[in-house]
Amino acid sequence: MSTPKTWLIVGASRGIGLEFVRQIIGHGHRVIATVRNPNSDIDALAKTAPDRVRVLTCDVSREESINGFIEQFVQSGERKIDYAVINAGILKYPNVRHKSLPLTFERFATHLHTNTIGPIIVAQKLLQLANVTIGTIAFMSSDSGSTTRFLAFEDGFAAYSASKAALNQALRHMAEELKRKQSQTAILALHPGEVSTDMSKIDIAWEISGGQITAEESVSAMIDVIQSKSIEHTGTFWTWKNEVCIFLPR
Ligand SMILES: NC(=O)c1ccc[n+]([C@@H]2O[C@H](COP(=O)([O-])OP(=O)(O)OC[C@H]3O[C@@H](n4cnc5c(N)ncnc54)[C@H](OP(=O)(O)O)[C@@H]3O)[C@@H](O)[C@H]2O)c1
Hints:
By secondary structure, this protein is α/β, with parallel strands linked by helices. It is 38% helix and 17% strand. The radius of gyration is 17 Å and the shape is globular.
């Protein structure tokens, strides 16, 4: 086993986030996992390695909850995060096959708050903490937010896709600004693949090319992808297969 590292997983109650926690513990590393609400799955995992798992609370869509999480983090005395994965996300639109729900102001805003603004603010507040070193921050994006691989057939995904595209642009700015400050924190975007989780239990009108993969497969591959990157990769976007996604035509 490699030297134990500390991972932070934001949005660890189920799906891809919970699987990150499971595998990281299995590799002998430490995890700070955040959930919105008390959760028996994460508690059960924490009991398997009580000295290596810390569970904190964070709802990324609410500023006061993010502030509360930062306060909990400071109180915990943690000084180093080797890898942070900002995984929390929602897909509330689409819905019924061939019949997208109306894209309301509120529904669009909810996607932006959860998938774009919250993740960026969480990262920003962690980066502002004095005496805390962060190696890599990986944001869970999606190929739905890629502008070069625009998925025109994804009816009903406009809010989700726009929120992930906005996340990509915001994290690129974060990477460039950090570079100019000579920061050693690498900022990455990831596409986890088409993963069988609660999020993918939706009634879509198109075939998923290549089918779905399990959270176990996706996370196992993404752990390798994240660990293979360093500061020279900051501001780049990678799939779970370690293929580079180009954000915009150059
Ligand atoms: N599954 C896929 O095929 C796929 C493809 C591309 C990208 N992704 C991205 O991968 C990430 C994880 O997705 P998943 O498939 O694991 O989805 P999931 O099973 O629906 O899990 C979503 C996770 O995000 C958390 N979350 C949602 N809203 C939150 C909020 N306001 N504050 C904090 N946590 C919140 C959920 O917590 P609660 O239990 O509290 O709701 C849950 O832990 C998302 O960012 C998603 O966009 C997934």
